[in-house]
Each structure stands twice: as structure tokens, then as C-alpha cells.
Design goal:
alpha/beta; Tyrosyl-Transfer RNA Synthetase; globular; 14 helices; two-stranded antiparallel sheet; Rossmann fold; binds 3-iodo-tyrosine; six-stranded mixed β-sheet
């Protein structure tokens, strides 16, 4: 029951809670998430990794798919480049606190197998182009000329759930339409569909919908303190607005998950120090009584501390 609450906490949806309850009774259920390897693992990735750690603590065996062929299909580079980056990503995910028991799987290690390939054709035959394209709306690299690769991608993602034998699939809200395609298609192919859990997306530091490696609007998990400072100082953070405010979101997802309160240090003439709970911060900021600069300074300082062990792990692990 407390396991259930811990997993649900901070997510947007669990599809379905009933099914999750059953999985929690099973012996060693498998949870997975896939990432396109990326040279910049950022706070957006970290939201899902933190949730996966929660799921791991609840007793799931965790598989992390380094989705090299998916990155390739999404135009992220040559397979050689992508493979190199996936090694770095494995260290990043460990640095964020996934346990030693975590299993990392490279997509290409099974996605070219004959049985996998036949399943790609089978699912391609029953999936409409419209549906496949729609499922990619928030995932595909913005491009005017859409490629066939774009519709192979979601089909492979659905099949990953069979080949990795997963009971639970985790992803950001942008993965929802692919997950729904899986929930519908897998039973028709004779497989059980996994429980799907979706986390909120982090807005970019520029205020755009999604923090993204390809848009230079991210804070990397191993950014140096000076870089974090600069990026937050420049961030979109209008006075009085908490919606779609990345600085507020960083406080919610990375500070208040560990601490009960956030210390805001202000000179006496600007109202003096404040020690705020999440609720109080939202209320105070909405009312316009807290200056963006004061919020930014305190979030910067705390975030730098929180990411310290991550930076240290990644430096120490270098060989
Ligand atoms: N679509 C993901 C990457 C990905 C996730 C899973 I779960 C897969 O099985 C395959 C790929 C992304 O947008 O990063």
C-alpha cells in the first residue's frame, strides 16, 4: 500500500492502478524505460530516473533500454557515435542512484534478430499510418520532411515490451500515445500489455514545452556550478507565474522531493529570509510577493548541492 503510494507520487497517471496492485504481489516483476542515448543527460531525464529508483525500491527488477536504434531512426547520428554515447549514459544513470542490480540493455543487441524483425512486419501490417505518426508527435525530431523511419520507431518500441518481458513501462507524458498503442496491440498479438506510468514533462529553461538535449534549454545533470548558475539566471521565470515556470518546477521535482522547506535568503530591506514549504512557495510566488531573482538564487544554490554527488561520481568514474 505504501509501495503503491510511493510509485504514484508525483506521476500524472498509472494505467491502471488495479494492474499495478497485482504486479506488486508478483515475485520479481520487471519494469523498464528506454532512452535514446544522448550526449546531454539533463533534469528531464532525471525525473524519470528518480521515479525508476522508487519503482526499484518497491521490488521491481529494472531494465534500462539504451535505445540506440531508436536514436538512429530519429536522426541522432551514426550507430557508432550513438553506441559511444550510450556508455556515457549508463554511467549517468548509475550516478543518479540506480542500484547495482539495474540491468542495461542495448537495443541493437536484440532488435535485429530474426524473430524481432518478423514481429516488426506483423505489427506494421495492423497499425495505421495515422496512428503511428500521431504517436510520434512529441518524440520525433522537428523536421519538415517526415521519413519512413518515424513510423518504424513506435512499432519497435511496442515490441521492446515483448522482448524485454516487461510488466511495467515508465515514461514521460510524451510517450503516452506509444504506450497506448502497445496496450491495444499487444493483447491482439497474444501478449499481456504492461502497466504504463507517465511522469510530467519539465519545461525548458527557455519556457518551451519540453526540456530537450537538442534545444539548448536544459540543465545537464553534470553541469558545473557556474553553468547551473548562469542557466538558471537566464531562465524563463515571470514574476507571479507558477505555471510552466521551469524554476518552480525544479524546486518541485528536485528540492521538495528531498527537503521539506526551501530557504530563501533576502536582504532585510527586501523582506528578509523566508523558509517555505512547497505550498507556501507556490502561494507566495503566485501572489507576486517573491521576486524571481530571489527564487532563482535559492533554487540555484540548492540544486548545485543536490547535483554534487552526481558530478563527483561522473568525474571519479572517468577512465
Ligand atoms: N521513445 C523514447 C525512447 C524509447 C523508449 C522506449 I520505453 C523504447 O522501448 C524504445 C525507445 C524517447 O523518446 O526517448
Amino acid at each position: 500500500d505504501s509501495k503503491m503510494e510511493n510509485i504514484k507520487n508525483g506521476t500524472l497517471e498509472v494505467i491502471t492502478e488495479e494492474e499495478l496492485k497485482d504486479k506488486l504481489q508478483e515475485d520479481k516483476p520487471v519494469a523498464y524505460i528506454g532512452y535514446e542515448p544522448s550526449g546531454n543527460i539533463h533534469l528531464g531525464h532525471a525525473i524519470t530516473v528518480k521515479k525508476m529508483i522508487e519503482i526499484q525500491k518497491a521490488g521491481f527488477h529494472v531494465k534500462i533500454l539504451l535505445a540506440d536504434l531508436h536514436a538512429y531512426l530519429n536522426g541522432k547520428g551514426t550507430l557508432e557515435e550513438i553506441e559511444e554515447i550510450s556508455k556515457y549514459n549508463m554511467r549517468c544513470f548509475r550516478a543518479l542512484g540506480l542500484s547495482e542490480k539495474t540491468e542495461f540493455v542495448l537495443g541493437s543487441s536484440y532488435q535485429t534478430r530474426e524473430d524481432y524483425t518478423y514481429k516488426v512486419y506483423e505489427l506494421a501490417l495492423s497499425t495505421t499510418l495515422t496512428r503511428a505518426k500521431r504517436s510520434m508527435a512529441q518524440i520525433t525530431r522537428d523536421s519538415a520532411d517526415h521519413k519512413v523511419a518515424e513510423v518504424i520507431y513506435p512499432i519497435m518500441q511496442v515490441l521492446d515490451m515483448i522482448f524485454l518481458k516487461v510488466d511495467l513501462a515508465l515514461g514521460g507524458m510524451e510517450q503516452r500515445k506509444i504506450h497506448m498503442l502497445a496496450r491495444e496491440s499487444l493483447p491482439k498479438m497474444g501478449y499481456k500489455a504492461p502497466v504504463c506510468i507517465h511522469t510530467p514533462l519539465l519545461h525548458g529553461t527557455d519556457g518551451s514545452d519540453k526540456m530537450s538535449s537538442s534545444k539548448q534549454n536544459y540543465i545537464a545533470i553534470d553541469d558545473e556550478p557556474e553553468v547551473i548558475k548562469k542557466k538558471i539566471q537566464k531562465s524563463y521565470c515571470p514574476q507571479g507565474v507558477v505555471e510552466a515556470n521551469p524554476v518552480i518546477e525544479i524546486a518541485e521535482h528536485f528540492i521538495f522531493t528531498d527537503d521539506d522547506k526551501l530557504l530563501i535568503e533576502r536582504p532585510e530591506k527586501f523582506g528578509g529570509n523566508l523558509n517555505l514549504t512547497q505550498e507556501e512557495l507556490l502561494e507566495k510566488y503566485s501572489s507576486g510577493d517573491l521576486h524571481p531573482m530571489d527564487l532563482k538564487n535559492s533554487v540555484t544554490n540548492r540544486l548545485i548541492e543536490i547535483l554534487e554527488p552526481v558530478r563527483e561520481y561522473l568525474k571519479s568514474d572517468m577512465d
